[in-house]
Amino acid sequence: MSDDIPPPRVALVGNPNSGKTALFNALTGSRHKVANYAGVTVEKKEGNFHSPAGTRVKVLDLPGTYSLRARSPDEAVTRDVVLGRMDGEDVPDAIVFVADATNLRLALRLALELKQLGLPAILALNMMDAAEKQGLGVDPAVLSAELGMPVVPTVAIKKGGIQPLLDQIDRTLQVAESEGWAVRRTECGWSEPSSHQLRDLTREVERILARAIHAPAQPHMATRRLDKVLLHPFAGLMILLTVLFLMFQGVFSWAQAPMELIDAGLAACTDWITASFPDGALRSLVTDGVIAGVGSVVIFLPQILVLFFFIQVLEDSGYMARAAFLLDKLMGGVGLHGRAFIPLLSSFACAVPGIMAARTIENRTDRIATIMIAPLMTCSARLPVYTLIIAAFVPDHDVLGGWVGLRGLVMFTLYAAGILSGLLVAFVMKRTVLKGAREPLLMQLPAYRLPHPRNVLLGLYDKGKAFLMRAGTTIFALMVVVWFLASFPAPPDGATDPAIRYSIAGAIGHALEPLLAPIGFNWQIALALVPGMAAREVAVGVLGTIYALSDSGDSLRGSLANVLSHSWSLPTALSLLAWYVFAPQCLATLGVVRRELNSRFWPAAMFVFLTTLAYGAAFATYRIAGWMTGG
Amino acid sequence: MNGQDLTVAAIVGLAAAWLVFKLYRAIRKRCRPADSGGGCGNCGKCG
């Protein structure tokens, strides 16, 4: 194929959670996120691979859909790509229809709809290993004959069946080309089926299933038995709470040793540099700026990894979809759609993908309500801030008979505060500015699976890499600039206060201080909040640098938490925690709200209401804590 | 200005330039909104 002809385009289409992204990763060598619940992919992804015949093929990973009658923005993407309605894009040259072999009833409905389009198609019969475990006998030859398309069994997550699929893609593209498909179709004819046609479709699916599938006399019971307990209205909720509680205990206890190791490494670095380099600006930049600043953030890597380990295992096992089901009643009570759970859950990692995941919600007012409360879910960037303050002010005691660590309990409470306030805000919004009828939750519960170790490890590797990359680039650059602003100009002759008091940063901090003094923030905190808008954890780095420059330099070698425990009052620390539960301190979040809702109003409204909430909560916390501690 | 000060000035200048560049790129982002199909998923600008 000559270079000036665009490569053939193959679209991966299928129901949600059928393994399209796993197949995309296996074909292209990418590492996009895969998980065991519906709605992980909400936008089109593109990649390339070379077929066995040497053809470069462009592959599109599309959001899952149950039908071409798209109801939500993510499903509309799939419909528009397949029908060639996307701006500037032709109809794909071929479709690989990805079907979950354990759930062919839903898959075949969509397969028959796609067949009517007349596009060259291949059926990738995915998760064949799970089907075999369940004793399901699926006959690919019969399916192929009935559907009129080649069928290739695959296990995408383990890269099983990829070579036969590649061979089949080659054959399909060659046939398509020989039949004149090289001349691209610009649009595919399709009209929404009538109810009569839908009934015919259902009958046809049942007929094919009867011929192609042999279900065991005794159906696979493990998932059903587990669900009896895990979806129980009371026991299920208790188990969910216990799982989340253990997660936060684990974040503190498991991460302790590696954090101490990193801390010791940073202290050794500081000692070595102090001993090896002459006193001066360069040494101060490295120790007070880079090590104290970036190091204060990097030290939280183990906690981030522990948190994501839990999330990844819960996602891969299929438990997350159950959690959504369990909380549907609670979420419905405040007016949220059940599908809001996955976007809100994703927001615990970062609000940006969480807000994008809200595309799976069909109703616009439900979608806006979900997006508006997504930043109230505690993202991983808040973890360093919470941990730092908890380590500084909460004693490392066990409570409740030695079973529960007090620090983990406080962390759990902060996460709970974010969730509860999010639900409260949704409750108010859905009864005022975002009124609308509540729609029922229809969701497919995936089968339980043992998490795939490779998937978990790759997920952790990607999270750790992203965290360190951010620390090594944006946070590093910010810390260098903060160090400069905190070090210059030099103090005047005869100055008695620490040098930072006379610096540009000192002037900015002191200018902001009156605004934040009513909530107990000193000028150092006020200053840390400004670059903290770029990323919340930057505030920790800035505090590290400011306090390193304010002191003789020895304090950071102890720990920043130790310095803060002597510099701040308890009401100030609690007030900052309350601030961070609510504050919209993330420009990326506001930017993605603007893009997703195509509106300047909603991000502005989000900033105003969250800042007001943060200030109010911090004010109340500071005053009440001050009154209780006699301050 | 000695060598140490020059090195510091260069590092601070590069860091500031990097941040300005990042800010410029963030402002210049031109991804299509979700309702018209979202981004391609390749550049990462969509989040």
From TrEMBL, chain A:
The keyword Iron-sulfur does not apply. Mg(2+) binds at residues 25-26, 28-29. GTP binds at residues 14-21, 39-43, 61-64, 126-129. Residues 7-175 form the FeoB-type G domain. Keywords: Cell inner membrane, Cell membrane, GTP-binding, Ion transport, Iron, Iron transport, Magnesium, Membrane, Metal-binding, Nucleotide-binding, Transmembrane, Transmembrane helix, Transport. The keyword Metal-binding applies. It comes from the Bacteria. Belongs to the TRAFAC class TrmE-Era-EngA-EngB-Septin-like GTPase superfamily. FeoB GTPase (TC 9.A.8) family. Probable transporter of a GTP-driven Fe(2+) uptake system. PANTHER family: FE(2+) TRANSPORTER FEOB, FERROUS IRON TRANSPORT PROTEIN B. This is Ferrous iron transport protein B. It comes from Magnetospirillum aberrantis SpK.
Automatic annotation (TrEMBL), chain B:
The keyword Membrane applies. It comes from the Bacteria. The keyword Transmembrane helix applies. Keywords: Membrane, Transmembrane, Transmembrane helix. The chain crosses the membrane at residues 6-24. This is FeoB-associated Cys-rich membrane protein. It comes from Magnetospirillum aberrantis SpK. The lineage of its organism: Bacteria, Pseudomonadati, Pseudomonadota, Alphaproteobacteria, Rhodospirillales.
